[in-house]
Each structure stands twice: as C-alpha cells, then as structure tokens.
Amino acid sequence: MSEKKLPGAVRLRVAPSPTGDPHVGTAYMSMFDLAFARQRGGRFILRIEDTDRARLQADSEDQIYDTLRWLGLTWDEGPDVGGPCAPYRQSERLETYRPYVERLLAGGHAYHCWCSPERLTAMREEQQRRKQPTGYDRLCVGKTREERAALPGFSEHPVVRMRIPDDVQTSFVDLIAGRIDAPMPDDQVILKTDGFPTYHLAVVVDDHEMGITHVVRGQEWISSTPKHLLLYRWLGLTPPAFAHMPLLRDEKKAKISKRKSPWARLTWFREQGYLPEALVNFLALQGYPPILEADGSEREVFTFDEFAERFDWAKVNPAGSMFNLDKLDWLNGVWMRELDLGDFASRLLPFLAAEGILPPNPSLGELARLKLVAELIQTRIAKLTEAAPLVAPFFMGDDMIVIADDARGQLDAQSPAVLDAAIKALGDIDDHGRGVLASESDWNASTIEAALRAAVVDGLGVKARVAFGPLRTGVSGQRISPPLFESMEILGKTSTLIRLAALRSTL
Ligand code: GLU
Hints:
Blueprint: E1 11-14, H1 24-39, E2 43-46, H2 60-70, H3 94-106, E3 110-115, H4 117-129, H5 145-149, E4 154-162, E5 171-174, E6 178-181, E7 189-191, H6 199-209, E8 214-218, H7 225-235, E9 241-245, H8 266-271, H9 276-287, E10 291-292, E11 298-299, H10 304-310, H11 325-338, H12 341-354, H13 364-377, H14 387-391, H15 405-408, H16 415-427, H17 445-460, H18 464-476, H19 484-491, H20 493-505
Parallel strand pairs: 1-2, 8-9
Antiparallel strand pairs: 3-4, 4-7, 5-6, 10-11
Helix pairs in contact: 1-10, 6-7, 9-11, 12-13, 16-17, 16-18, 16-20, 17-19, 18-20
The protein binds glutamic acid (GLU).
Glutamic acid binds at residues 15-17, 49, 203, 217, 221.
C-alpha cells in the first residue's frame, strides 16, 4: 500500500480494456487526460485493464498502442514504456490487490458470497418479475461457510462482495457537472472466483497505487463512483478528483457503440483516410467549445497544443454534442491543406501502396512525381482514401489506361476531330526531346493550355468544357481527374501523345 512520491504535479490515466478494436472513447478520454497533464506539468499514464478474461482479445492491446500513438497521444508511463508503478497491466498486479481485500474483509466492509450463478440468475429474474430493484439479496451476509453450505444454491468457490451500508452517500462533486446524485449501489463483487479483482476494486487500488490525481472517464461510469468513494473511505485513502466526460453520441443522440456505428472503432478513422490532426481537433470539439480569440471571434480549427494550453474543466460541456462526420470531413480538408507537400505525399503513400499504385518504398523518381501529383490534388480531396483513383493514372504504363464507362460517356461525334487537333498541337510543343518534365522545356501547363485553346477551342470552335472532356478521358481514363494541363505537364509529352492516340484509335 504504497505512498511513494511519484513524478508529475498531476497524474492522469486512461484505462482501456483490451476487448477488441479500440473504442473512439479511449482517444477522447486520453486527449482530455493529456491536455490537463501537459498544461500542469503532470504525467499521463496508460493502464491496461484486462481483468475480464472472458472478453480479452489478443491484438487489442497493440491496436490501443498503435492508434493512440498515431494520434500523437503518447503516454509517460505504461505497459510498453514502463515507469515507477510498473506493471501497468492489471493481470500482472494480482498480488497487489490481495492485501486490500484482506483489509476490507477484516474491517467488516466486505464478505464472502457462496451463491451459485444459478441462484443469482433465479434471484434476479424473480426481482424483475416483481418489478423490484435488482441487486444481491445478501443471503451470505454474516454466515460462515458451514452455515451457508447448509442452504441451497451453494457454490464451492466464493466471491468477495462489498457490504454497502444502507445510509451510503451517493452524491459526489464532479469537475465537469458539479454535484451529481448517483443511483444507490448494491453489494458489488470485488473479487471473483478466479482470484481476479473486478473493475471496481482494481480501479481504486490502481488509481491509488499509481498516484492518480484526476480520474477522467465517460458518464457511463457515474453509477460506479459512489462505490469507489466507499472503497477509498474504508481503506483510509484520499480519493482523486473525478471528471465524467459527456458521452459521444451518434446523429440520433444515442451513445455510440461499436455494434451500431463503424466509426466507434478508432481504427476506422485511419482506414478512412482521416488525419490524426483532424480527428484530435474533431474530438476536442465534441466536448469543448471553439477557441475564443482576443477579438471575440471563435476558431474551430486548433492543434492539440493550443487545446492543452487553454484547457479548463469548467469549459467542458456536460451535455456533449452529436457526432457529425460532415464536420470531420471539413476539418480533414482544412488539415490536409495545412500539410507541406512532402508531408502530404508521405501520408498518401500507405493508401497508394495498399492499392498497388506505388511500392511501399518508392524510388526517388516516383516520389518526385508523387509530390507533383499531390500538389494537384491537395485541395481536391476530403480524405486520403480519395487520392488513389486520381493518382493512379500517373503511375500506370501508357498501355494500361482503361477508359471508365462514365469517361467514355463524355465522347461524342466531335471527339475524333478534337483529339486529332490536340495531338497535332501538342506534338508541336518543343520539349527538347525530354519526353518528361524538364524545367527548360516548353512543355508546361501554360504552353499546353495555350496550344490546346488555340487548336481546339479557337481552331475548331468547340466550347472549352466540351473540348477538354475527351482529352481528360484519354490521359487519365477517368471522367474526373486533377487539372488537365498540369496533368499533361507531369505525364510528359510522350505519354500524353501515346494516350491520346490510343483513345483516338478506338473511335
Ligand atoms: N476499464 C474501464 C474502461 O474500459 C475504465 C473506466 C475508468 O476509467 O475508470 O472504460
């Protein structure tokens, strides 16, 4: 029952259970933990709460590390980085909990319960049938093992339960909501038959042992807090401050769940091509107002550091807000445009590699070309996943261009003449034999545009919108592509002419 001096002016923790794909709430809590810890020169701790052995999932812990690191929400102490309170995985701390259980038993605040699961189920069903509050009926209170064994519904392996007093204080002060009246708890199990503590005991013991000063968790835990406060009192420990965060809600105002919404999974955001900067910004806005500028205006776009600097519990909105993915798309666009080109290109790379458009480790030439293409699409996409179809034509062999049906739909009776005139005009531009982009060449977007306008728009009298559709189709195979003249510049004269001629030959 350590009272050692631990580092950090304040100490906050996130305590996810590794029961599957990490929940977006884990990132949400971590952000508020970390913001306050950073602001106060404190520490942020990651603890893995793996006492529910039935729900464990093998790769979940690594996914928690990966996704939080991806978001830049890094911890000062945790199972993988160690720290003064190691181990940080509850399954490795079983010995820590035992003396606390002994103390509670000795003080009369806890008792053994030998009721079999069958008896407990029957009891609960009966309570529900009678419309009574459900909760343990205290059959085992005050009984020795022998006394209890004489009664029906006995099980060899007891659990340990808290003995909740009838006059329990169920209200407490919360950093966000102020005074909260929580519901009356029943005699909660604190130690299971397998020797593992339940959440209630483990969370109190670990928050104490790890010197946690502020517990930040979702409002769904409000009903647990009076039980935890009792445990602190019985054990003679100082409780931390509590901040119960507003729940993340879906567009129908329901608490989001991994079962109902794919975006309750943290990995979903990365797969969908959102930037960590945008997700962090978005999550902050779920529970926190925009930044108020000195001139009275509000700013919704902010970095985590700006958020942490200004963070104040009093400003957290206890009602929370609803998830609006359109808002996230908008923020993502804003953050994407903030990236310098090299950074933007490198963020695109995993998505392009996954589609086989580029190798995971491209050559310098491929990277240089990717940067040029990235510049064309940076303002045109909302998510990184949208890049692949726009980028693909720049990394295909000229003979690999397949004309999409909707792109072919842009062709009409004038298209052969348009293509012929364009091929002739572009063929006359001098690229100094480079075939590819070169700064001293005349082959650049403005000469290309001028040549095409002169030959097709002026020469043939075809409207620009009609004229350039077939050319776009020819060079990209797509109806929608990055700007045409810049695309031709990047592709180079040779590829552009080969592609246009290939389309022409099919008409
Ligand atoms: N293990 C709990 C969870 O998965 C932690 C709750 C708390 O922060 O106290 O959410």
